Amino acid sequence: MAWGKPKKSSKRDTKLKQRQNSGDHNHRLSGPMEVALRVQFLDLLHTLHPVSISTPMSLPPVVYHYFQTPLPYARTLALQERLHQIQLGSRRASSHQDILLLLQHRPVYTTGRRQTEHELQSERARLTKIGAEFVTTSRGGQLTYHGPGQLVGYPLLDLGRTSPPMGIRDYICRMQKMIQIHLMSAHKLAHVPSDHTGVFLDPATKVASIGVQVRHRLTTHGFAMNVSKEPLEWFDRVVACGLADVKAGCIEVAAGKQIQVRDVVEGVVDVFGELYGRVMEKLRVESAGEVGEAILALEEEALEAGNWPNAPTS
Known about the structure:
Blueprint: E1 3-4, H1 32-46, E2 62-66, H2 73-91, E3 98-103, E4 108-111, H3 117-129, E5 133-136, E6 144-146, E7 150-156, H4 168-187, E8 199-202, E9 205-215, E10 218-226, H5 232-235, E11 247-248, H6 251-255, H7 261-276, E12 280-282, H8 289-304, E13 308-309
Parallel strand pairs: 2-3, 2-12, 4-5, 9-11
Antiparallel strand pairs: 1-13, 3-7, 4-6, 7-10, 8-9, 9-10
């Protein structure tokens, strides 16, 4: 069986290899289909409410960090909690930062707060046998999968910064539209409307999930978007998000091109800033105090964790 290997970057601030602003020229659409995509793109923008009375110039930047090595889920959960506490403490002095963590996880199945441990006992035993971790969380949503080949974003934002404060529904709506716009602008992939939270390529194919938590107007958890084919076999082992008639899709299959997670990071960051009305800046980890120390510690732990399974073991 194949195993993934952690790779140490020669420079933490090395520029990501590919920008996804213009899509793959070998798969550029033309004619009626391109017109339809552009119309849908404009519709997405027009359905947004104004971000706030505040402007990007009046708000501090959102700092972002992309982890090069897939992270263990439980420790990443602990990192979110640590950064949440730092934000909560420094908010009293109005010195807190808004942060966007971008990453991949080691193979893991996670559940939301709606499901009880009694309900999940058999699933925990079955799924850990195939090589994945299994973690219960406090986010919204039900059972799902995270792993290599999937871009996970954890925005740690203060929704009270804007005037008026951003509501939770608006926050989730912007996150969903951010993914939809990225898929369309970078990969020429249209979404279809759904009654379910997340982003769908057709009524039976889901490419991205959303599950958030908000405490004291500070957000944790976030979104997951399938980029390469690697997550699909893991998704096939469960009914993700309780949707029995829905399968997982990915950008690689839908767009018909080879693509890796690192290729989409900068494009997602750009659209995130636009949708939330914020300037985005790369986090200078070495000079970021407690926040930087916590991030560096997790990166070292991820490297020490060694290889991970690329596919279910049975």
